[in-house]
Design brief:
The protein is α/β, with parallel strands linked by helices. It has helices spanning 17-26, 49-59, 74-85, 104-115, 151-159, 171-177, 188-197, 226-246, 253-275, 281-294, 302-307, 310-321, 323-341, and strands at 3-9, 36-42, 64-68, 90-93, 99-100, 119-127, 136-138, 147-148, 167-170, 202-214. It is globular.
Length: 342
């Protein structure tokens, strides 16, 4: 078996989204020459998702396998189940509400064969409709991140690994290091993405947008809650834990410091005050303590200084001084800007 494509689904029986994703996978152009399998994992849905997947399994025997988690483990747990069951030499991941160009996996595998890479990616595009029309193209990994990987390339990949769903990974590397995803939480790939890339030795990219990333306003990825913010914080903590575990902490400390600050702290801070309706001072204090406990000098990090603008740095300094002052100032600033727009 050449390739295993792992796709988690949760409560996607309605609106034809599951069908659009699955139809794009069962009709991949590599089917004739390179045998592949689709591991469609139902993450303990409460609707008819699993029954739909079973129909695909019956219609495409040997190509589709419908799996089911015993309890809801979120995407990380569903992907881990797929990895355990996968028989392919390569592993690809897809989100259940997205889809692939007909030749996506043929082109990724061809690039791997031509170059000897052990991980291969592509670009993606965002779309608001279920069609094969090209939407807004998002150029993913950059040329200076590709090729035979060395310390400088690893640093760049730690800073910006880009999405895991636009890549295929050689399974022997996954098995050698027992690479897995965090379970039972959102933002699992924010932790896994950088750590996984540090285990591979040769990364190549197809310079085409082959992955369709569906933008849905009601998607769980667009709904913000304190619980989801805590998942992001936990993903940051696990990123540090994994880097310590595999010996990546010291060689890439500066890059890890920035990645942690961005994931655990900055993105959480602004997402929380923008998206959570009822803000909690205690949460903001906890967030600050967690940042300072792990990397107290993060504001001096050169990547931090280069990435964030003057206003963002000002707000962060204010939060570091006082959570209450930060929240009062931010709310006043947001109210002023809303008034100016009227």
């Amino acid at each position: 078996m050449k390739l295993s494509i792992i796709v988690p689904f949760y409560n996607m029986a309605a609106d034809g989204k599951l069908n659009y994703c699955m139809d794009s996978l069962v009709n991949q152009t590599l089917s004739g020459r390179e045998p592949y399998e689709i591991l469609a994992v139902d993450d303990c849905s409460t609707d008819g998702t699993y029954e739909l997947l079973r129909r695909y399994e019956e219609q495409y025997p040997g190509k589709v396998r419908a799996l089911k988690t015993p309890v809801n483990k979120k995407q990380g747990g569903a992907r881990n189940l797929g990895i355990e069951q996968a028989q392919g030499e390569w592993i690809g991941f897809m989100d259940g509400d997205d889809w692939a160009a007909p030749d996506m996996y043929e082109k990724l595998l061809q690039k791997a064969q031509e170059t000897g890479a052990d991980v291969v990616g592509c670009d993606l595009h965002e779309t608001y409709e279920h069609s094969m029309k090209i939407g807004r193209i998002v150029n993913a990994n950059t040329p200076d991140q590709t090729g035979v990987l060395d310390a400088e390339k690893y640093k760049k990949l730690m800073l910006n690994p880009c999405s895991m769903v636009i890549k295929i990974y050689q399974k022997r590397v996954i098995d050698k290091y027992r690479l897995r995803f965090p379970e039972g939480m959102f933002y699992e790939d924010n932790c896994a993405g950088p750590v996984w890339m540090l285990h591979f030795t040769h990364f190549e990219k197809v310079e085409e947008p082959l992955y369709y990333y569906y933008q849905d306003a009601v998607s769980t990825t667009h709904y913000i809650s304190e619980a989801k913010c805590r998942d992001r914080m936990r993903a940051g903590e696990m990123l540090v834990e994994e880097c310590r575990k595999y010996g990546f902490y010291e060689p890439y400390r500066r890059e890890l410091e920035f990645a942690y600050a961005k994931l655990y702290y900055v993105n959480t801070l602004f997402t929380y005050v923008i998206g959570v309706k009822k803000t909690n001072i205690r949460f903001l204090k906890e967030l600050k303590r967690g940042m300072l406990r792990e990397f107290p000098d993060f504001q001096d990090n050169p990547y931090f200084q280069e990435t964030y603008d003057r206003e963002q740095k000002k707000l962060i300094r204010l939060h570091m001084r006082s959570s209450a002052l930060f929240l009062a100032y931010y709310k006043a600033l947001a109210a002023y800007r809303r008034m100016r727009k009227r």
